[in-house]
Amino acid sequence: MTVMYLFTRYRFNWDEVDFSIFSTYSMITNLIVFSHMLKMDDALIGLMSCTSKILAGFVYAFATTTWAIYLAPLVDIVNGTSFIAMRSIASKLVPPDELGKINSVFGLAEAIVPVVYGPMYSALYRATMDTLPGAFFLLGGALTAPALIIFG
C-alpha cells in the first residue's frame, strides 16, 4: 500500500484524501466474494483470483487517468479469494490432527512475505519511477503466475 500511495501521488498527483477515497473504494470492492454464493470448486476460485490479480496489475500499471485507476479494483474484485481457496484446499488434503501445523505454515508465510515483497517493490518502484512507475504491479502479476499454474 505504501508503494501504491507513492505511485498515485506521482502518476495522478493525488494527495492523502484522494488516496484515502480510492483505498476505501478498493477495499469495498474486494469485500465481494463470489465463492460462497456460487458454490464453485476451490481450484477454480484460485484460478479466478490469480487471473484477476494479473489482469488488474496491467490495468494499474498502465492507467493514466483517474477513471482507469478506479477500474482496476473492479478487475481485481476476486483477488482476495485465493487465500481462502488455498486454506480450503489444504484443509481438505491434510488430516484433521495436522490442521494446526498447516495453519502455522500459512501464518509464517503471511508474516515473511511482506518482509521480502515490501523492499523489493520499493526498490523496483525507485528504479523505474521515471520510465514505468507501475512496473511493480507487473512484477506482482509475474510473481502470481506460479500460483495460477498450481491452481490449474
Automatic annotation (TrEMBL):
Cellular component terms (Gene Ontology): membrane
Location(s) in or outside the cell: Membrane
Record's keyword annotation contains Transmembrane: yes
Superkingdom of origin: Eukaryota
Topology term for the membrane: Multi-pass membrane protein
Keywords, sorted A to Z: Membrane, Transmembrane, Transmembrane helix
Listed InterPro entries: MFS_trans_sf
Residues that span the membrane, as ranges: 20-38, 45-63, 69-90, 102-120, 132-151
Major location (coarse): membrane
Protein name as it appears in the record: Uncharacterized protein
Organism, as annotated: Ranatra chinensis
